Every structure is written in C-alpha cells, then in structure tokens.
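step: validate -> pass
step: tokenize input -> pass
step: predict -> running
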Amino acid sequence: MKLSIFHTPELTPAVTTADCAIAVDVLRATSTMVTALSAGAEAVQVFSDLDELLQVSAAWLPDKRLRAGERGGAKVEGFDFGNSPLDCTPERVGGRRLFISTTNGTRALQCVQAAPTVLAAALINRNAVVDYLVENQPKTIWIVCSGWEGSFSLEDTVCAGAIAHSLLTRLSCSLVDLAGNDEVTGAVALYEQWQADLLGLFHHASHGQRLLRLACHEDLDYCSRTDTSDILPIQREPGVLVNSKQLALAH
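step: predict -> pass
step: emit ->
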C-alpha cells in the first residue's frame, strides 16, 4: 500500500492513477457530508458550479432535496444551507438528497471522481476511513486536500496526517514503506505535534480564523473532534456519495 497526499486539487495529477482517492475538506464540506449521511440523507451530490447545482436539483421534488451553497465561508443567498455540519439534523435532511457546492471541497471530489473508489474523509470519520483501507488494501491511495483557493491549509493536511498516522499503527509498517511522497511525512509530523490540541491548530489556520470572524465557533469545535462518526461517504456514481453501509446492502 502506497499513500500520497496532495495539498490542493491544483497540485493533484490531472490523470487519476489511484486505486482509492480520498477527498478531505475538514472545514467544512467533508465534515458536512459525513454528518448529512449520518442524519439519514439519501445521498450527497457535489457540484463545483452553483448554476449546475440549481439546474440538476430542479428535477427533484422540493421535499426530496436540499441545496447547500457556500462561497467564502458564507451561505449563498437563496440556498437552504450554507456549509455547516450542525445544520444537518435528521429532521432536516432525513430521506432527502443534499445538493452541495462549496468554495473548495467539492472541487477536490470532482478532480478525483474517475478513481475506482472515491471516499470523503474528515477528522470526525477518520477511523471509518482507516477501517476501509485496512480491510480493502488498495495498492495506491491518494488523499486530496481541498486547501483554500489553491493554497495549502493546515486543517486538511493534519487530517491527512491523522489518517496516515493511524494506518502506520494498524498496518505495523514504517513511514518509508507507506509514503508515496514527501507530503505524507510532513502531514504525519503535523498531526503528531498537534493531535492533543486540534482545535487550537484550527484557531491558527487561516480558514479557521475566517470562520471565527463569521461566528462559526461551534463548527470549528465539531470539526476538530476525531473518530466521532462511523459513517463513510463513498462515491456510487460520479459526483454522488452515499453511506458505504447503504452501498453494501445494495450489493
């Protein structure tokens, strides 16, 4: 098993050669996706373009859809949600499809949607991701961090490091054996330094500070917790993610 980490979609190779690709946007798209599926959403469908989201979701009955739109950390006018996982309660999302477009996270998913297996990861479902990787043993894994508008982000890299750190323990292998690029070593070091204070790291992160200015304190706290959900979003068809347990039942 070889793991490579890419800090942004822009730094990810144009042709996906990974057996398993994992998109990470801790603040907040992938945390929201995990939470929505945990609360009973039928599926999450991702879009980089807001107009395309509106066009596709228009074919769904209003009581079977929710539209989540976020730009610059703020909710897009006219959408049901912004990008807060705390909005995803069973009462609001149960049985509905969440159509979502965010500044960064949905772009990360779309850039790897051609991979044979595509997962969405956050700190809250780190263990579910690692369980899947240990059980299925994909030869080549890419973790694609969303970053912020093309730039490195601390929160996504520390999540990638948390996944790598857990894999090292579970597989009893060395960093040399696992790492497919230098970014893996850097991400593991970042996680080892901050694992006891991930919320503190989020307060240092530029996007964390942006969300604090938008009064999203509770979102930061929620997204900084590790292994609080056993939900694994997995791509069923390009751009559409479902709870992996639902996919297993379908087969």
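step: describe -> Residues 211 and 217 are 7 Å apart (CA to CA).
step: cleanup -> pass
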